């Protein structure tokens, strides 16, 4: 075959493959954009149907901190399943915002939820904290006309199935540590801690169980075992993977007259 003809054929084939690759990438991008649009197409409408609850617990409350786990766990029942599994990517899950807002005067706890879940959330709170006072209030405003705003977003460094320290592993009350800091705010200073939670599917827990299985399998073979994963960490991953999971956005917002610390 003529070298020029061979080069021309190869160039044409390469060009065809390149065009095909670009078309596939473009189609995937358009499909992803369509999924996002369809999933959140009514986000603004839903945001207008949110309700803010102010939650107050008596100071002499003696309910242990682990009781809150029951409330959080019950929220996993809000997960929406598609009729057919392949349609699940088009389904948006309900979100709830748990907020602690501290000012110079006081510290308040809020829950912002879709109005249709108000009864469910209130019943869960009262079932654990019988003396709680739950009231519907206007959405609190953090910002002032001349205030300086600092913002931070917390995320995970590792895969979701890796454990975080829980209240069982922290010697002091973690909530008391947070409220202690918020109680020291000066006048015209406001700090908010917001945790937006949305029920997640089981893919993260399946990954955790798969990791445990693969790790145990590899470490059972002395020739390839690395023993890099501590047994206690595997146990913690297994414990976490057995619980309901949530997608979480954790945000910190601070407003003050100046940005200086």
TrEMBL record:
Matching InterPro entries: DUF8128 (IPR058441)
Residues passing through the membrane, by range: 12-38
DUF8128 domain location: 58-260
This protein's UniProt keywords: Membrane, Transmembrane, Transmembrane helix
Pfam families: DUF8128
Protein name: DUF8128 domain-containing protein
